[in-house]
Amino acid sequence: MPLYIADYRADTAHLSASQHGAYLLLIMHYWSTGSLPNDDAALARIAAMTPVEWKRNRATVAAFFGDNWTHKRIDAELNRAKEISDKRSASAKQRHSKSYANAEQVDTHARVLPQSQSPSEAKASAPTDPEADLFRRGREVLGKSSGGLIKQLLAAKGGKINLARAAIETAAGKNSPREYIGAAIRGPEPPPGQTDHRVDPRL
To answer: Which of 4, 38, 101, 111 is found 20 to 30 A from 46 (Cα to Cα)?
Structure first.
């Protein structure tokens, strides 16, 4: 969540320390969920205030919000973040499409190589190794030191390179690609009372 310090300080100079805390907790919840409940008991819990404290400070904090506890600045930032995410996702899909097309072209050339071609020429025209390409793409998206993380992802996908590659391409469109891959490795949370055997990606 972006926080513009100068703007925030200018708008909130009149707040007490507890009011600052309540306001920041409310806008962080708004950023995470996209809205706030229109219920004083729920708002008090989010603001970490007792009902009495919330009643005393409600009007001051509410002045920063619109009807039904909407917030124009955060709504605008959420829309901007979504646009960025959509553009990254579209770019990743375009790169993946080009990569697939290039691989298909190389594979076609490899099948029609003349027998007189030298070993070095044949090697240059051969299709790329899918696993090597997975690690190359993974390091582009997750960082140069992500080899171990990619190995864990491949293991979590049962050794299926196409599934691991799909997860990496999806991660490329996320704000936090490594966190997305970590969640993909861990898998869904186990039912209550069941031992958690999920992989620890150690991000």
So the answer is: 4
